[in-house]
Amino acid sequence: MILKLDVKGFNKNFISDYSTLISRHIKYGVSSSMSAVEREVKKRAPVDSGDLKKSISVDSLNIGSREIAKNIMRFGVKYALFIEEGTKSRVIKARNARVLSDGSSFFGKRVKHPGTKATHFLKKSIKTKEKNVSSMLESELQKVLNNI
Q: Which of 84, 73, 63 is nearest to 19 (CA)?
């Protein structure tokens, strides 16, 4: 989710004069709102082994010259996208063995996998927290304006 704020009515000098104050409040607003989204994503993440839920984290990125704050949500398992978006049905063929097996059962040389249904746990979490994120950022911007 990329959130872009355009604040109209401020001149360029305002940003440079109050950059430390603005930066501190925006960083806090972005960090606290991303933490709220992270908690919601972990709450909604489907659990089989628990690895997906444990792998979810939010990290701060280095601040670029034009950006005040940037955070990223990471999923430490490769299959997170497949859980979120689902998969199409497909044929699985034996490659390095004569037949497909899970160790106790044999399935044959090829199997038609029905695919998996999308959960959209990430999209649903973001939608749920969308208003909270906006209000947290508005609150921090209001603190900036109150300190001027």
A: 63
Beta bridge partners of 72: 59
User: Could you give the C-alpha distances from 50 to 42, 54, 116, in angstroms and in order?
Assistant: 10, 6, 18
Rounded to whole angstroms, the Cα distance separating 126 from 81 reads 15
| DSSP code, position 116 | B
Q: Is the pLDDT of residue 1 over 60?
A: no
Average pLDDT over residues 61-75: 68
Question: What is the C-alpha to C-alpha distance for residues 74 and 83, in angstroms, rounded to an integer?
Answer: 14
CB atoms within 10 A of CB 20: 8
Domain boundaries defined on the chain: 12-146
Residue pair 40/125 in contact (Cβ under 8 Å)? The answer is: yes
**In the block, residue with structure tokens 């984290």:** 57
- Banded model confidence at residue 21, pLDDT cuts 50, 70, 90: confident
Phi, psi of 135 (to 5 degrees): -70, -35
Q: Please state, as a whole number, how many other Cβ atoms lie within 10 Å of the Cβ of residue 127.
A: 12
Unique residue bearing structure tokens 């670029």:
64
